[in-house]
Amino acid sequence: MNKKIFIFFPDGVGLRNFAFTQFKELGEERGNQIVYWNNTVFSLKEELGYDEVIIENHKIHRLTPIYTRIRKHIELNVSRQKFNDTVYATYKFPFSYNGLKNSLISIFSKLMIGFNSSEAGIIRVRNRINALERSTDKYKYCKAQLLEHKPDLVFCTTQRATQSIGALLAAQDIGIPTVGFVYSWDNVPKAMHLIETDYYCVWSDLMKEEVLKYYPFIKESQVIVTGTPQFEPHFDSGLSQSRADFCAENNLDPTKKYICYSGDDETTSPLDQFYLEDLAVAVRNLNAKGENLAIIYRKCPVDTTTRYDLVLEKYKDCIAVLNPLWKPFGKNWNEILPTKADLKALYNVCQHSELVTNVCSSTVFDFVLHNKPCVYYNYEQPQFKKGIRDIGQNYNYVHFRSMPTPEAAVFCTDKKELENQIKQILEGKLSNVSEGKKWFEIVASEAPTEASKNIWNTIGTILKQ
């Protein structure tokens, strides 16, 4: 085919899917020239030896973050009205009135939201955002790069980054086809769709239905179901380590059965450390009754808090810390980026754990692909008080309505039941694996090993048109 494809990273979330998998190699096998259009602090040239064009101008319009937040609130208001469903209000974050500047921004935002909470209002705000970004030096900078390098197509690795808006507008304005990838399973109902591309690659039929439902300006022919490369590494047996090697590398006891505790970010689960403590108490109790268990604590990669430290120290007899192999490339949370080595690390944590426990994480899918159950915590902690997020609201979100049955995860609704549920899972009497795999197929497609290939098929078809 001999086409030049720009793989656009507006931020680092797409690295795992499109730099560390076989995605690049599959594209090159078809005769494409793959160039990474890189807006991140991660150097693909230095780290992986890949061709890249670096976007050094990161300055979006100063009003864009304000208007994108306004757009999100309007879209959620419209969804609430259109579908008569209060869940959409729970996706909103409160406005800040801390200081004069924040107060003025919040008052302006609420006025704009009030005047534009309609389908027509969404269009007005979208057009305003696009006009703001077209006025920036970044837009001109990206346009100049595109004119210099002349890619045949730009593939954007996430739909939710404000950094992508001006660059994609520049591509469209000079007639370069653009394709956007919807990054995460929960993004569409949460109004996290900021980019406008010529085509969209989505995980599943469910996600396609959602895109068309929430974004009526997108036509069905623009949305292509491809799957996601996110789960492809779980089917790569070359990543597998023996039990002995895995335990030796991570200073674990090969005679113990390990339960993975997958940590959450502070926004989703502000009292997450206390669920880890509940698990540690259950493990100690079971060990006192003759079991030989321990916990692998794998934190949320972008969690830089110290909130788990006291629990990790108190229960160090039964908790082993295996941090994700992500690297900080800057001081901000969004500059903590994945590494290729973490694909292998996650594969083997799944393979050598008996089960995973967490608060509403998509790791349920990582583990069921290794035939391992998942326990979701769904009870409040005694430390809960006004002003702390209720974790129960997570399970009311739209993306959890995709569960084929309530048995697609094991829900722990009372910490007094946790010990018994773990024992039942270890004895093979309780599992969500069968239903969890059905859920995975609904969310992430029935052919999870074909996603990268499907995306390249889509790109090839677009280039022929």
UniProtKB/TrEMBL annotation:
User: One cellular component GO annotation, for this chain's record?
Assistant: membrane
> Can the keyword NADP be found in this entry's annotation?
no
A GO molecular-function term, please?
CDP-glycerol glycerophosphotransferase activity
**What keywords appear on the UniProt entry?**
Transferase
Where does the record locate the signal sequence feature?
none
Record-given protein name? UDP-N-acetylglucosamine:LPS N-acetylglucosamine transferase
